[in-house]
Design a protein that fits this description.
The chain has six helices and five strands; from the N terminus they run βββαβαααααβ. With 207 residues, it is of the alpha+beta class. The chain has two domains: 4-39, no CATH class; 44-206, no CATH class. Strands 1-2-3 form a three-stranded antiparallel β-sheet. Strands 4-5 form a two-stranded antiparallel sheet. A hairpin with a 5-residue loop joins β2 (15-23) and β3. It starts with a strand and ends with a strand. The relative contact order is 0.14.
Length: 207
Amino acid sequence: MLKKTFIIKFLVVGLVFTLTCKQSEDNSVQIKVTHEKDSMNEEKVLSGEEYLMKNLRLMDEITALQEKWIALEEEVFEITSVTEDVDWKKLNEKGKFLLKGVTDIVVHYGEDRKKIYNVFDEENLEKIESFLRQSFIYVDVLQRTIIKLAIITNRLYRMTVEPGSWSARKYLKELDQYKSLCDEYHKEGYKMNEELEKMRNATLKIK
């Protein structure tokens, strides 16, 4: 005689159970109750890239920061004299805003990185360790570069309020230091992207 199986799900105090009713050849019905919470403990397999994109806020936050960063940098590099018709106070405020943005990124990165180390076992950590190491270097140089730009906008503003507080020579020196940091930032960012590419082939088992 053909066996028949019926599966029914029911809810008890917010928990989902599954009834599996199986009709045997002697017409008796065998019932198996399983709690769906058990199935939640099954391992999920994700690529390293997919996991990092979902669990590192840095990956989203850096895009918004870069847009504001590029806009401010263009404003600064267009300045040829402090006598220009520039809203120096507003320029300084933009530098402060950018500085707050990168500070938030650094804090979030530290929190997310700590969470990853707490969640993953040694096997998973070994697979993404190289990326985490490079991303730490990247975030460090990102912060130093933004700090330098914020210092420049602040000193430009102060020079209009306190003439003689800063010289053109010092300004050009700060710009050279900033450009050097930008070069380092792009180099480390390129390396981080390379490490992220490698993560596509790394499979992580997440419970």
